[in-house]
Amino acid sequence: MTAIIEGRIDTLTAPALQEELTNSWEGVTELVLDFGKVEYISSAGLRVLISAEKQMASAGGRIVLKSVSPVVMEVLEMTGLSNVLHIE
User: Are 85 and 65 spatial neighbours (Cβ–Cβ below 8 Å)?
Assistant: First the structure.
């Protein structure tokens, strides 16, 4: 299953993303998040990704981030999450 994520993932939008992801992964073994249109990600957004990855992994699945912009990739690399998350 692929979900296209757009805009900013911050304290205002992260709860909605968390809710969408939680409702999306039942029965899914690989959830692809297309980050091509994500302009910014805050620590709140990073927490959503970590939580989602843990929940998917505990169910035997995984989350894959695709088309990550250089700005977002820099944040993932600085936080060490580029080594934890599956990024293509």
Answer: yes
Structure-token match 């980050």, residue found: 35
User: Can you name the residues that pair with 40 across neighbouring β-strands?
Assistant: 8
Global pTM reads 0.89
Here the tokens at position 58 are 């505990």
Please give the DSSP secondary-structure letter assigned to residue 7.
E
Q: Is residue 86 classed as helix, strand or coil in its secondary structure?
A: strand
Q: Give the mean pLDDT of 63-70.
A: 96
Query: What is the spatial distance between Cα 31 and Cα 52, in angstroms, rounded to a whole number?
Result: 10
Amino acid identity of residue 8, one-letter, is R
DSSP 62: E
Contact between residue 38 and residue 70 where contact means Cβ atoms under 8 Å apart = no
Length of the chain: 88
38's torsion region: left (phi>0), alpha (psi -120 to 50) or beta? Answer: beta
